[in-house]
Amino acid sequence: MKSIKDQVRDNVRGQVWWQVTDQVKDKVWCQVLDQVTAQVTAQVGAQVRDQVRDQVWRQVWAQDGKVD
Amino acid sequence: MIKNLTAEQEALLPVYRDKWLDIGLSTEPLNFEKAKAAVCVAYESAGLPKPTKFYTAKSPVDAIRLIKNLNPRMETTKIMSDMAYGCHDANWLGFYQYFRDVLGIKACEKLDGLIDLAHHCGWLNMYYDTVVFQDRPKHIKLDDQNRLHCEYGPAILYRDGYSVYAWHGVTIPSEWITNKGELTAKIALTWVNTEQRKAACEIIGWATVLRELNAHTIDSDEDPMIGTLLEVDIPDIGEEKFLRVLCGTGREFAIPVPPNMKTALEANAWTYGLEGNLLRDLEVRT
């Protein structure tokens, strides 16, 4: 069974993705991706989200699930 | 089918980029009431009943503790896998908000709840009837290339003290910053992760590290401002070249330079993007 996160976030995102791709040409899609998403992904996604997430995961693995 | 953006629509691309950078890097405290309202809209969009129980945590680790208290049987790895990223989903939420607001694509309205949520909270865990919101970081420090970096404390600090230390985009052990005196060249040079090893050498200072590595001199310029070209064998990395030089304040430091450098003058000029002789000419003129 899908988790609530999958249902609320990932499934809805997937549905919207298909509907947007049906309505815009690849060129427009790529333009928005390049000019809105790329820098936010680099700065927020890769720098902040991933670094925090990776550190918490490392702590979880190192402490066998017990995070202090 | 939308084939092209108009000039007005193109002009809004950087506006949305900057807006979502601000959301993603926000250090505002969690807005509990607005986050609650937004997450209910997100559940409704997914065809799920609204949650009724809401909790707050100050950091991801605090959220793990809280959820384990609520449900001791839940595995930590499951809790981690269940985390959604709220404001740190900025990259893809900004993308769809642009299509929703600027191009009028109605399908994107299904993301209204998540888009709104990103404005008000950090990460979150969503369960059938329960949501655990996390606060956003209290501070996020970046260098001039927008990489996580702080020389004197955590680069990311949450309100409960949970922190991430980073050096020019590379996460490092906290003690390398909090207890710099104990970071030695030996520790740095034998560190397994090569990115962290480079960070450690930069924290100690390459000039100090090179002294301990018995670097051999390839070329020494008579002008100490031009410096000395050195070659060293770094464990697991191999031969690397460095320019050891005095800066204008008389402080010695060392800069990694490309392996094809043959003289100190050539290496020094390379740091300015110049040819060697041109650098000498500039020096004479000044």
Please tell me about this protein's structure.
The complex is a heterodimer of chains A (68) and B (286). By secondary structure, chain A is an all-alpha fold. Chain A has 2 helices and no strands. By secondary structure, chain B is an alpha+beta fold. Chain B contains 13 helices and 13 strands. In chain B, the strands form 4 sheets. A 4-stranded mixed sheet of chain B has the order 1-4-3-2, sandwiched between helices. Chain B has a 4-stranded antiparallel sheet with strand order 10-11-12-13. Chain B has a 3-stranded antiparallel sheet with strand order 5-6-7, with no helix packed on it. The mean pLDDT of chain B is 91. At the A-B interface, α1 and α2 of A face α2, α3, α4, α5 and β2 of B.
**How many strands appear in the DSSP assignment of chain A?**
0
SS-based class of chain B = alpha+beta
- In terms of quaternary structure, the protein is heterodimer
In N-to-C order, the SSE pattern of chain B is HHHEHHEHHEEEEEEEHHHHEEEEHH
**Uncertain runs of chain A with pLDDT below 50, 5 residues or more?**
none
Shape of chain A: flat
Based on Cα principal axes, name the global outline of chain B. Answer: elongated
Mean pLDDT of chain B: 91
Largest interface: A-B, 46 and 66 residues
Q: What is the makeup of the main sheet of chain B?
A: 4 strands, mixed
**Arithmetic mean of pLDDT of chain A:** 91
Tell me the total number of β-strands of chain B: 13
Percent of residues of chain A in helical segments? over 70%
Distance between the termini of chain B: 61 Å
> Helix and strand string of chain A, N-terminal first?
HH
Percentage beta strand of chain B: 15-25%
- What is the straight-line distance between the termini of chain A? 30 Å
